[in-house]
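FAQ: What does a ligand-bound record look like?

Like this one, built around zinc ion:
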Amino acid sequence: MTHTHIALDWSEHADNACDSDVLQTNQFRVHGVLSREAQITGHCPYCYGSIEFTRKLKLLPANPSGTTGQSIGKKTMDITARCTCALDHPGRPAGERGCGRSWVATGHK
Ligand SMILES: [Zn+2]
Ligand SMILES: [Zn+2]
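The answer part, i.e. the structure of the complex:
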């Protein structure tokens, strides 16, 4: 990946085009057995900063009717990732990281 970081103004709204080529290169992993986490690493498809985003997964009890539970039987899952790049974005609130933008990464379980 040879994209240069873009110092976009910090925003929680994706007003810029999401670079789907970069999105494709996001690595998606699920860790753990009892306490599962999804980890997404790669580059932000908006600012091209390198990111490492971790989200705890909810463990839902399987329901015999199959109507609840986290995507039972599905081979993929979607996680909303948020930019965590460490580089500067003008207007970023204190304590925040990244450019504020988020996107949906699809991973294989
Ligand atoms: Zn970003
Ligand atoms: Zn950035």
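Follow-up question: can I read anything off the structure? Yes, for example: The chain has a mean pLDDT of 85.
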